[in-house]
Amino acid sequence: MAKRTVNTNLITEKLAELSGAASCELDDDLIGALKEGLRIEESPVGRQILEQILENAKISRDTRLASCQDTGFAVVFLEIGQDVCLEGPVLPDAVNEGVRQGYEKNYLRKSIVDDPAITRKNTRDNTPAVIYTDIVPGDKVKIILTAKGGGSENMSAVAMLKPADGIEGVRKFVVDTVKKAGGNPCPPIIVGVGVGGTFEKCALLAKKALLRPLGSHHPDERYAKLERELLVEINATGIGPQGLGGRVTALSVMVETFPCHIASLPAAVNLNCHASRHKEAII
Description:
Elements: E1 4-7, H1 8-24, H2 28-40, H3 44-63, E2 73-81, E3 84-87, H4 91-105, E4 130-136, E5 141-148, H5 150-153, E6 157-161, H6 166-181, E7 189-197, H7 199-209, H8 221-235, E8 250-260, E9 265-272, E10 278-282
Parallel strand pairs: 1-3, 2-4, 7-8
Antiparallel strand pairs: 2-5, 5-10, 6-9, 7-9
Helix pairs in contact: 1-4, 2-3, 6-8
């Protein structure tokens, strides 16, 4: 098959657009889940919070102002077709330039510090982004940007369970993580779960799970059943919207899996707040 040339400046342009859209235009599946949460929520305070979240989302879309002051760490997933030949600025530079332009143009808060533990000086442009690349069939480049807020990210966790812990061990770990988080990740939350792989792979699976459409299920019915059961169990905790009590603590639980070593059972939980922000484009 003939190779297709893609200039990385196009990736910069798309990421600049996606950065603004992610913070100002919450996806329709998320809005639908919030409306369903409002329908079933019994707590008066919880209902009021959900009404305010929905109103805030509408104002954000209408005014092009960020739906949350924490406009997140830019995490970029690139699926690059093996028949694509990239030209122009080196890929990481092109990605970071797109994030830089998008955050400046849309007046989004810059939240990234250059050194994690000592100087912690703000980079002032929300770069560098975290970048993941996959080589896939075809001649297209798919770009997925997720703006990951610090509050929900801080409540995430990884556990190296014993194989004997099995599915019940995974279930307990997920629910315990959500209980420990309480109101800190700004519920109602979306819960991404990774099971299998290695220490770092299961964390990546959990983050990728958050990119799925809300209400979608794992193709293996055993794990789809786990997703449904976890959602029920998490919503029975009573944490509720913003941690102030109610039935709607989570909008969705999504599990991703990967083979693992015979001696291991890694599991990870990555949480998203109610402003679950991600956008994608194909070049």
